[in-house]
Design goal:
Blueprint (H helix, E strand, L loop, with lengths): L2 H16 L3 H13 L1 H32 L2 H23 L15 H13 L2 H10 L10 H25 L1 H29 L5
Helix pairs in contact: 1-7, 1-8, 2-3, 2-5, 2-7, 2-8, 3-5, 3-6, 3-7, 4-6, 4-8
């Protein structure tokens, strides 16, 4: 992956990690309930789950590209349109409201399981990766190498963001209730820019 492409991918990945979703909500809530150290199990479960979904999306795309390299251009335009739609939906979405979790205290294995299942049980995540990753794939380069670069970049960004959420849980929760609409619009605007610009590149 070229450096300039990776930098754009890293920026888009950071925007994705900052976008409110089930795993960021889980990290925030577990951070408030159990502390940042124990929430590492939740975060690790989510990162592994997301990495599996990236693998499914990328190698599924790889199989399509073996049939025809022209498919990548079509996927870029379809994916760009989907990212635009996601950005508009996020722009219009209400602020994130955090409620208490049901049930009692959880063990480390249960925290890991909740993070993992939260990541892999959302079909929208796989659909998102199917739209997002073609914008950065180079059909002439090694798919396995690109997978490791993309998965590692996403894993680091997601881990850092979720860990910061867990550490700052008590400070962030009231801010999200007050300023969540502005935050949603900023993240939605980023998706709109990515969705509009990337299909036109190369």
């Amino acid at each position: 992956m070229a450096l300039d492409t990776w930098l754009i991918y890293a920026l888009a990945t950071l925007g994705l990690s900052l976008t409110p979703g089930p795993n960021s909500l889980l990290a925030l809530t577990h951070g408030a309930l159990y502390g940042a150290r124990r929430t590492l199990f939740t975060i690790l479960g989510g990162v592994i789950g997301f990495s599996l979904l990236i693998a499914l999306a990328m190698f599924g795309l790889g199989a399509l590209l073996q049939a025809s390299s022209d498919i990548l251009l079509t996927l870029k335009w379809i994916g760009g349109a989907y990212l635009l739609w996601l950005g508009i939906q996020l722009w219009r979405s209400p602020p994130l409201h955090l409620g208490p979790l049901s049930g009692g205290a959880l063990g480390d294995a249960a925290l890991f399981r909740q993070g993992f299942l939260s990541a892999v049980s959302n079909p929208k995540v796989l659909l998102f990766y199917g739209a997002f990753l073609p914008q950065f794939l180079d059909p002439q380069a090694s798919l396995l190498t690109q997978f490791f670069v993309m998965a590692a970049t996403f894993a680091v960004a997601e881990f850092v963001v979720e860990y910061l959420l867990a550490r700052l849980a008590f400070r962030i929760r009231p801010w999200m209730a007050r300023g969540g609409k502005v935050f949603n619009r900023a993240c939605g605007g980023l998706f709109v820019l990515v969705g509009a610009a990337l299909p036109l590149s190369r």
